[in-house]
Design brief:
Helix content: 25-40%
Number of strands: 6
Strand order of the largest sheet: 1-2-3-4
Distance between the termini: 27 Å
Radius of gyration: 12 Å
Structural class: alpha+beta
Largest sheet: 4 strands, antiparallel
Amino acid sequence: MSTIDVERLAEVGRTWLTDVTPGGNLNVVELEDGAGVCVVHAVRGGGKVYVAPDGTVLFTGSSVTFDAGLGAFLDGARTARDGARPAGR
């Protein structure tokens, strides 16, 4: 049983990705241990948004593997609201 609100987090990720890379089909992956979700825009030039239970995100471009992005996300890397730079933990 999940301890996170997958739909709420997925909506945060969808909104974020739509602003950055509009169009296309988005897939939602629930992360293990209640770490959040990853919303994937699996097209060339797309990307992934990892969303933590507190609503903070890490955006990675399509060239970054899922595991590399997940590792950075679990280590606390976040993308600032303006998308320009990683935010602090």
